[in-house]
Amino acid sequence: MSAVQPRFQHTGIAFGCDYNPEQWSPEVWDEDIRLMSEAGVDLVAINIFGWSHLEPRAGEFEFGALADIIERLHRAGIRINLGTGTASAPAWLVRRHPEILPMAEDGTRRYQGGRQAWCPSSPEFRSAALRLVREVAERFGDHPALALWHVSNELGCHNALCFCPNSDAAFRYWLRRRYGNIGALNAAWGTAFWSQTYQEWSEIDTPRLTVSTRNPGQMLDFRRFSSDELLAHYRSEAEVIRSYSDAPITTNFMLTSHIDGLDYWSWADDMDVIANDHYLDHRLSDPTVELAFAADLTRGISGNEPWLLMEHSVGAVNWQPINLAKAAGQMTRNSLTHVARGADAVCFFQWRASVQGSEKYHSAMLPHAGTNAASWREVCELGEIVGSLSEVAGTRVESEVALVFSWEAWWATEEESRPSHALGYLDQVHAAYGALYALGLTVDVVAPDADFTRYKLVVAPGLHLVREQHARSLTDWVFAGGTALITFYSGTVDEDDRVWAGGYGGPFREALGVHVEEFAPVAAGTVLRLSTGATARLWSERSTATTARVEATFIDGPARDAPAITSNAWGAGQAWYLSTLLDHSDYTDLLATVSGAAGVHSAVPFRGGEGQLELVRRRGEAHSYVFIINHADAAATVEVSGLEMITGVNVQNQWQVPAGAVRVVREALA
Amino acid sequence: MSAVQPRFQHTGIAFGCDYNPEQWSPEVWDEDIRLMSEAGVDLVAINIFGWSHLEPRAGEFEFGALADIIERLHRAGIRINLGTGTASAPAWLVRRHPEILPMAEDGTRRYQGGRQAWCPSSPEFRSAALRLVREVAERFGDHPALALWHVSNELGCHNALCFCPNSDAAFRYWLRRRYGNIGALNAAWGTAFWSQTYQEWSEIDTPRLTVSTRNPGQMLDFRRFSSDELLAHYRSEAEVIRSYSDAPITTNFMLTSHIDGLDYWSWADDMDVIANDHYLDHRLSDPTVELAFAADLTRGISGNEPWLLMEHSVGAVNWQPINLAKAAGQMTRNSLTHVARGADAVCFFQWRASVQGSEKYHSAMLPHAGTNAASWREVCELGEIVGSLSEVAGTRVESEVALVFSWEAWWATEEESRPSHALGYLDQVHAAYGALYALGLTVDVVAPDADFTRYKLVVAPGLHLVREQHARSLTDWVFAGGTALITFYSGTVDEDDRVWAGGYGGPFREALGVHVEEFAPVAAGTVLRLSTGATARLWSERSTATTARVEATFIDGPARDAPAITSNAWGAGQAWYLSTLLDHSDYTDLLATVSGAAGVHSAVPFRGGEGQLELVRRRGEAHSYVFIINHADAAATVEVSGLEMITGVNVQNQWQVPAGAVRVVREALA
Amino acid sequence: MSAVQPRFQHTGIAFGCDYNPEQWSPEVWDEDIRLMSEAGVDLVAINIFGWSHLEPRAGEFEFGALADIIERLHRAGIRINLGTGTASAPAWLVRRHPEILPMAEDGTRRYQGGRQAWCPSSPEFRSAALRLVREVAERFGDHPALALWHVSNELGCHNALCFCPNSDAAFRYWLRRRYGNIGALNAAWGTAFWSQTYQEWSEIDTPRLTVSTRNPGQMLDFRRFSSDELLAHYRSEAEVIRSYSDAPITTNFMLTSHIDGLDYWSWADDMDVIANDHYLDHRLSDPTVELAFAADLTRGISGNEPWLLMEHSVGAVNWQPINLAKAAGQMTRNSLTHVARGADAVCFFQWRASVQGSEKYHSAMLPHAGTNAASWREVCELGEIVGSLSEVAGTRVESEVALVFSWEAWWATEEESRPSHALGYLDQVHAAYGALYALGLTVDVVAPDADFTRYKLVVAPGLHLVREQHARSLTDWVFAGGTALITFYSGTVDEDDRVWAGGYGGPFREALGVHVEEFAPVAAGTVLRLSTGATARLWSERSTATTARVEATFIDGPARDAPAITSNAWGAGQAWYLSTLLDHSDYTDLLATVSGAAGVHSAVPFRGGEGQLELVRRRGEAHSYVFIINHADAAATVEVSGLEMITGVNVQNQWQVPAGAVRVVREALA
To answer: Which domains does chain A have, with CATH numbers?
Structure first.
């Protein structure tokens, strides 16, 4: 076992894919490897769903095919991102131990026949999985092609929450460790209400469906527990691997819109390198903005270290209601957004489009149509671009703005009983991020316990649940001269989901200089008008400014005449509060004002791009690299000088980036 | 045990709240009691969810805290509305007897962790609950502060329907008592259809989900059974209490929009005083009208005796999709609507806003923000208003109009297979009531078996299921000179949900003078035009007038040329029929015509108020009291003379009630 | 047992109904039979739900009432369509064998109390059912009134899919027979993906719910299995009957909009005559077109033999969200559409409207209102019309156009993961059929393995799954000179739901002369414009014409500049491809072009009717019969000569068919 944490090492930016050769014959393998080389692929994830192939019957192992494919890839100079193969259990295991199957909140089971059909707290599953991991690690742990270990797959994508008896027992164990005595649990969950006081640990279960609503403290702890259980599973696999291998270990996170099962802030330290899967979600109003946000969040999880984009898609996915194809150039822009925001690998799910199974309509590098396809040609071009950006690998993204993000706040915001079911945490985060994005600003997404000293502006959208010390850390930073924008519903509850009494905003209250008496959400379709002419929706608050300056008031709606936007001088700094959801352009105007006051600038000056221009600088030791991604229909003008690495042209001062184009300019460091 | 029914006694109109001191420390109790006195609170409901505090372990009772809080309240002159504490079972009981947990219609259980997680037919639950009630009643049954017993809480709010094996057995027992022999059951349920004939009682279960649709007769009886089971539970608790206490006993009904589990007509006689919980439902098109309806219905259940508003809200609730705050003055108007319509108590859920648990976002008298809040100030003002109306207590509401309401009709209307799922019983009732409300008329809501002799007009909207003798009683009253308006789908089925053949309308047919051949519901969005220029939706009928005079015909739609509104001279009276759902203003016009013909008048003459003016007279022995509640944005003029009790001003003849204001004028009785 | 297949014999076109006399007393029976005769009824289905009446307790049989009713009908000259009575099991059987109850995909049961509450694979159900069938067949198998056996009822309407342990076992048995060895199953289902490989048959279950998505190959086979299980049940009942009776045997199919459980192509050979139940579905955009389609499909299933309309409705049904009444004349038009398209019987569910049970609001020949009703009068008129068309019975429908329909394609199209959930198979079929209908063309709906030689034009809309030999048979027919229109998503997968790689369209690709690279579905509301000015929705494709001529391109959307409509000369024939969903009028224009090129004509020339005119010719030995059904609001002109059989008028050349009218012209054969 290595004493120091192994690091992922690669020459340049990795370009790769998931590969599931089990679906194909060896002749196809050879064609695949030839085409991979043609496309510039140099990192391939295999054995993700290997279990039923490696261990077709309990305890009978067959490693021939896996060894064969590893050798073939190795011979072609392609490095391996090796799955432990435990992502989905084979049918025989479920037959032997049906209690492995997850249980839904109504007490019904979910069955074999898809993927990830296992309870994270199942001892039988864990023990069988670790036996497989040991076999795999022992055989391939020091293979020269091994670049990285890939534990399981998209942990928690489907099975984050399990309500089975094994989960009940594990939840009780977790609670004993958290609370020590049952009185502390009762206090934390507020069980005095509705006659829910527990006397014995054995009286507690996972929060299965009730006839009414569930205890929100129990629900919140169940979310924490569920994240921890899968982390414990990850750790147990990693521990086995480490006995046999010095290669870095990770798993592919799912920082991608709606996936909310795991608190990745608590996972980061266990990863040797952070890896993420991201897919455009066309159910969102602006999937491209969410992509940038997810990339920035991944970088935040990674502590501003470079990270790996382990999966994204060439074109359409298969699991949304309507799965849109990507426009020409969109895959390239999407890939470069990830690289701009810190990715040192661009990988896809998957190499060759499946012709069977649940994901056969998911796009792939090599489509059903074969190489005679525009998408294949764009893949090859992207391989060249990625190759041309080799020296960017290892550099760090620069940012002056931090946006606070919290899974605990997400979970607490969306509890069963709440002021408005129209209020979603992620929507608020996206709205704030989208305004910053429209201004061309680069944002670090940080945890509530972040060190804010390197920033000029901190935005905390809807930070509903916040621990007192984290809130204090933020307001102390403001006091020392920082500028913060905090938005409605922030500071409502503490870590036990207990309301901070005395006026909403709790630990932010004094710094904000506002006394919030009452939440006043509004019905769907209601538009609120502000004294500034701005419009807003969703929410308002009945409040009064205590020490704050009122920047805007509501001129109609349930909070008429109350402040909508305030700013408060707090020590040497400035604390802004927004008590409604501004419409996009007004939100952008507000953030222009606030960021202007905080002295925040975009990476380079620009003109045009209609709020759809990404500008990010990665800084290395000798050079820095400005990424410009123009999603707009028209050219934009940027002011930056140096070698444009994709076109190979030297650019100077103001020059034009065409509609839809991606450019990367290498700047000499002063 | 007392031989005569105890009556609720109180000086003036009670003002109070639910109070859950278990959530707070004793220091908070003292502050609470001080502030209660400040606000004028004189009746407090406690121990509603006391079980897990009183009996933390099976058979171990701890009454110290409850005794303490009772003494503190008593010392402050606050009277007690004492809960039996059985509303939710503690976790240990469910652990010992998991069969207590309710079962949903698909056979899955619902679990501990919310509230009311018990099967109404569970012998284990009942036995444990009664043991607790005995302990409580024995200790506090003759306490001088005890004003009222509060059995359980909102019975049937969540657990009205249980499909577990205990419920199966209880249902069979109930059916045997109802039918005596299985042949009578088969006849009542029409089991000859679809091969459902039963030979043995043991073959029958509760109506769990089927692959098709369920037997509607079985469903209807299951609704009746479910109401009766909870009533039996109430009676069993009340019987225990009566052994130890002479105080009046009640439970808080839920006459509030969508709650349909219990047939409160059959519950009324068991209550020593009727109490109700009411919450504005913002999913309705006009929540304020529904509030007035619910208050009138509560008075109806109470047989025009004064009743108690046991819970309502200061501001937003927490269980609707979007929970709107109340506008300034709205809480006062809401409260006075209840008083105007017969309430002798104005109580809230709850005193101090919880900071934890499922209801922490439910408004309270003392909000999270504390006493520095507009809502607290309005609570204190309301306390004063209620105090100033003291002499109104005990007086009776006057009305010339009755509206017939029936839970059985509700249940039968909304069976699984029906002409139109867009047709809801409550919608029809609200539509008719809303038209009467817009005319400023006071309405008694009565049961189908009511004595109509004191009324000038009876409205029966959508009285789908009706027993023959009740229908006859109504038509006989018309024959004797009354005026009735009956609307579509009325008189369709008898008490067994059996269609009255020979033309719809069944027992009303002859009095209406209409032959209805066929229902013709219309698609969502379809607007029907009538020959009078009126517009209508939802429904039409293919019918012919036999003896009736046609007041309006359909000029389009599936019943083109058929009568839409008819009136029929029946004996000395007049029977109107409306075969569609008129739009609100046209419905109001129709009721203006019908009520005008019936000689019905509003409590006092008025002008303005745009259909949003409530006018109700309560009559006492020495005086009568006219309540005027102006929900409109403009002042209204009313014609009434006497002392206005809230402002303390003498008014005479025509005077103005400002927008949003509440006024109560004491009139001298002639 | 008879060696030759018995045929259904009847004088003229049968006119009849379901009759459930169990609901009524014998006096009512006599009235019923009198009124049946008045209406012209000559075929009555009884004993459909007879089980609980015939066998009230296990093994105790009571046949008196059934024998009585048969005699009464027989005496009145009415023939019997005798149910086996097994459609719904009595409660006692379910009590003895609760495992008979179906299981839903989440593992919960569905219960007694509706109808069809039985697992198709239950040995206990089958054995009890066959015992009843034997008793019935033995008693009535040679009764002179017996016209037809009616096995069970609407098989699979509610219970097509069962996931219980008995179904698991039966599914495994079925799979063993299909695949022989487990490797073949793994290959067919693509279990290599997601670690789903099976080693033992015992590891396989029915596809119950998973946390993710299910294996589509398993789902597809489960649909096939489920259809086969009910067919096996049918066969087992038929086999028992055949031991005792020479009368023809059938069951009522459900070729009616959304019902997709059974692959009736595989059922046809087991029926002595094809019978169908059809109901207008007002959730569809054009229910009348669907009716015509269903009738043509029924004729297709019947191999162009005359078939029986076993159930349809006089007016509203009771199971849709809003159940619309029929307009005056609509029932007659609906009935004649069936006759025009090959029905030799017009029967209704049901005779007398039930006054109890789940179907009491379903219309009937004798409505609740009794004989004083317009609908009853129209029933009697229809009886006369049917009588006047007696000689049409036994004749065959003529058509030059075939539309390919496939349940397997339906099932595969609507799997859980797919390019667009907005894409429904039936919608595509209806869109193509609707365009042909608008042109007044008669269409044969045929199976993918049909013999196309008798047609001039074949349309294959969305034939997603297709077997190679069937695709080849179609393209070979084109090569030989035929004209085909194939639409998008056709030819995507083979019989194992395996994508045909190399460009979508698979086995149609070469004949179409198009290379389809990528699917590009569009969001709801997106309108695509074509170079011809046509508009389209739902779908587009990125493709290039290889040998095809481009008839239209997309001028916007994700496939801008790609071909939208192509035609390809293939041998002596012409293969058209449509890669989007044209709006109705543009689709009609395209089919006008294609059918014009193919030399297809309507049954007779016409003018007017606005696309709502049905024109169908049935050809007999001595005469042919042209049916003209005018659904439009205006008269239409048709060119046909002969005796109009309903009005009894001789018509010649161009004459007018009034709005809403039905006409049948007897032509002399040359």
So the answer is: 401-598 (3.40.50.880), 606-668 (2.60.40.1180)
